[in-house]
Specification:
Length: 215
């Protein structure tokens, strides 16, 4: 999903789409593509909108990168899932969906194998991330302090922006409608579909802000 404006990375993204910002001498999106092809994924769809020409000019048809690249051109911003409606209707294979601003060592082949082994409709790749509350936390009941914990650390499973989806998911998405992938997952859960989490411990960094880009 490479169509976003990258507002949180301005001014870096004023003349360059976020996926084309260079880290280690190459665009973020190129690093993602090379990771996918190294795991055996060669049929790639890129959803594009903001400054799409610079992405298309760099990757073209993908042959230079050992890939077959097609472009899903958004006439308007469709969110993190709306562009799935533009995928070929005759596809019956599962797919990997991911944001184009992620650096990771996640093994995509293992993610897809896990998805299929669970007979899941949708799999979210998650990473356990600690969060330290920078204050003392009081446990209170009826105005009485029961305990005080100094700067406690809690762990949460955060969404990495990487997913495995069965072929039925793109087919269920209405065309031309702005839709986020978290809403898709929520709807599938309401329908009692098999929706699972794949936990990763590999390196992962979401490059959504200046501080992450500098890191």
């Amino acid at each position: 999903m490479a169509g976003g404006m990258g507002n949180r990375l301005r001014p870096l993204t004023e003349d360059c789409p976020k996926p084309m910002l260079k880290i280690g001498g190459r665009p973020i999106l190129e690093t993602i593509l090379l990771s996918l092809t190294s795991c055996g994924f060669h049929k790639i769809f890129m959803s594009v909108n903001y400054r799409a020409d610079s992405i298309i000019e760099h990757f073209r048809d993908g042959r230079e990168f050992d890939a077959e690249i097609s472009y899903l051109k958004e006439d308007k911003f469709l969110g993190t899932a709306g562009a799935l409606s533009m995928l070929p209707a005759n596809n019956d294979l599962p797919l990997i969906l991911m944001n184009a601003d992620i650096l990771t060592k996640i093994n995509f082949e293992k993610l897809l194998s896990f998805h299929e082994s669970k007979n899941a409709v949708a799999t979210m790749c998650v990473k356990e991330t600690p969060y330290e509350i920078p204050y003392g936390v009081a446990e209170i009941k009826d105005s009485k302090i029961l305990s005080i914990q100094e700067k406690p650390v809690h762990s949460y499973f955060v969404n990495t922006g990487i997913y495995a989806l069965s072929a039925e998911v793109p087919k269920s998405i209405p065309k031309g409608v702005h839709l986020n992938i978290t809403d898709v997952f929520g709807n599938l859960i309401k329908q009692s579909k098999e929706v699972v989490a794949f936990t990763t411990r590999e390196y992962w960094l979401d490059i959504g802000e200046i501080s992450s880009f500098e890191k």
